Every structure is written in structure tokens, then in C-alpha cells.
Amino acid sequence: MLLIECPWCGPRAETEFSCGGEAGIARPLDTDQLTDKEWGDYLFMRKNPRGVHHEQWMHTQGCRRWFKAQRDTVSYEIQGYETFELPLLSMGSDANAPGQSQSQTQSQTQGKAGSNAQEGTAS
Ligand SMILES: [Zn+2]
């Protein structure tokens, strides 16, 4: 079982989280202009790399916030976390903990995370 560190709640068991798949997939702007192959690629084709992978995770049994994790798919080691308003946080670094400035950007984060999640799981 993975031990995943929620940027807001701290380390928790993997069973508290839902994986949202590959991070950083942008929905095409003009979907009417896409071919079926391009639309299918957007919906279904993922990198699935051997090595470093960027993923979206939701702390479903906790704070219900989305964040991104950089994980090695070979060793399962999670190398860092990223919220939707802060860049990658290295493991063990508390200097830029998101809780310090979270109150003013909390609602923005949830809005962005929600739209991003829909992109990741669109069917
Ligand atoms: Zn959490």
C-alpha cells in the first residue's frame, strides 16, 4: 500500500485517495474541429511511462481536494506533490507548505481542481 501525503492533511493510506489519472491533459479548445482519432486520443490515450509520472489524486476520504503527485512507476516512490496554486513540493520540505497561504486561494483551487478533474475523467 502506498503512503500518500496529502498537501493539506499529511501522510495517509492509499485507500483514502482516488487516482484521477495522468495530470496535465488539457481539453482541446475547439472540439468540433477534431477528427475522431484526435478526440479518441484526447479521451483515451495516455503516456503510461516507465519511470517518472505526473498524476492527479483526490483525498476522497479526507479533505476532498485535488492535487498532483510526481511518482516513479517502477519504485512507486512519490517524489513530490503539487497543488493547483503552488509548484512542485519536494518530499520533506515544509518551507512552502500550502496551508500557510491556503485561505485566500482555497476557493480558486477547488474550482480549478474540479474542472481539471472533469477533463481527466471525461467520457
Ligand atoms: Zn487531504
Question: Could you explain how this protein is built, in words?
Answer:
This protein is α+β, with helices and mostly antiparallel strands and 123 residues long. The chain has a domain of 68 residues. Helices cover 23% and strands 28% of the residues. The chain has a 5-stranded antiparallel beta sheet with strand order 3-4-5-6-7. Strand 1 and strand 2 form a beta hairpin. The longest helix is centred in the last third of the chain and has 19 residues. Zinc ion binds next to loops. Zinc ion (ZN) binds next to loops.
**Structural class label:** alpha+beta
Bound molecules: zinc ion
Residue share in helices?
Answer: 10-25%
How many H/I helical runs? 2
Q: Strand-and-helix sequence, N→C? A: EEEHEEEEH
Proportion of beta-strand residues: 25-35%
The largest sheet, given as strand count, sense and whether it forms a barrel, is: 5 strands, antiparallel
Radius of gyration: 15 Å
Mean pLDDT: 79
Shape: elongated
Summarize the structure in short.
Helix content is 23%, strand content 28%. It is α+β, with helices and mostly antiparallel strands and 123 residues long.
Q: Which key features would you list for this structure?
A:
123 residues, alpha+beta, five-stranded antiparallel beta sheet, two-stranded antiparallel ribbon, 7 strands, binds zinc ion, SoxD, SoxD_sf
Question: What is the topological layout?
Answer:
Layout: E1 3-6, E2 10-13, E3 18-22, H1 36-44, E4 52-58, E5 66-72, E6 78-82, E7 89-90, H2 102-120
Antiparallel strand pairs: 1-2, 3-4, 4-5, 5-6, 6-7
InterPro entries: SoxD, SoxD_sf
Pfam families: SoxD (PF04267)
Protein name: Sarcosine oxidase subunit delta
